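Let us work through a complete example step by step.
Step 1: write down the sequence.
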Amino acid sequence: MTVIDVHTHVFPRITRNEGGLLGDANRPWLRVDGDGAGMMMNGDDEYRPVGEALWDPARRLADMDAAGVDVQAVSSTPLMFGYSAEPERAADWCDLVNERILAFCSGAPDRLLPLCQVPLQDPALACDVATRAAAAGHRGVHIGNHVGDRNLDDDGITGFLAHCARLGLPVLAHPWDMFGADRMRDHMLPWLCGMPAETQLSILGLMLSGAFERIPPSLRLCFCHGGGSFAFLLGRADNAWHRRDIVRAGSPRPPSEYVDRFFVDSAVFDPRALRLLVDVMGADRVMLGTDYPFPLGEQDPGATIRACPGLDDAERALLLGGNARAFFAAAPAEGLLATEGSAQ
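Step 2: predict the structure and record it as tokens.
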């Protein structure tokens, strides 16, 4: 049984000077302190202590072997998105990050699948960067769930998602820069409350705005952290759609009829929650995701799937790897790589 983890992060060795590509106010870089320890830096500020698995592929592969993980999809740490920077600077930054992620994965291309990042603040540039990255060997795109006050149902961003669909390039959407930060200063509440709410907002926005009607159904889109609070509150959204015309104004179908348009990962950490998630999404729409190598991730990859009640062996195999194999199966459409450019 192949085990594929679709939600893992990397922060390649990027110096303070290289971080300056984004400008003095936006300078993510990695400080390596020795003995396997390091610090993610945001300019002069220490952002988060980290370990060498975040930048050392040999350590990562050893961890994968120890945990029984065959393949990881490797995406940047959200601190690196650069969405607040001037678009041309951000495009150059993304090219650098994407080059480093390719290098990180190059020693084990059958086990480490590189995902690129893009300057999503400028969807036309994002299309160009994604096309270049796909041609260079990236297997998908990693994006944040919003850019400032623009959600994923923004016309420019849906144009970018349509571009990815035409390329056959899968998209992993990750919550970040959570709203309400002034009320969530302690206890990692932005990660515990803000991230699930951000993801639910993204999914419902795509549904209720009619964006899923405008995006090709061939798009392979996955939301991290089990889709946040979406599955638990889907009944509330359906009830609102049926009872209030202002809820359904932009959407011809209730939210529950769009669950076949996206995937979610399994990072919910409770077998009972995963059981609900599979009931809502279907066993063919949930993929193993651990958030490796961060402490809030699943430390025993696949443990929640293996403990989930009511799954048969075939369904467990789908969640542990079969669905992800299909999600990343098709290479980008080679004939389009040379011709596809900006979002239409």
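Step 3: interpret the result. The two ends are 41 Å apart (CA to CA).
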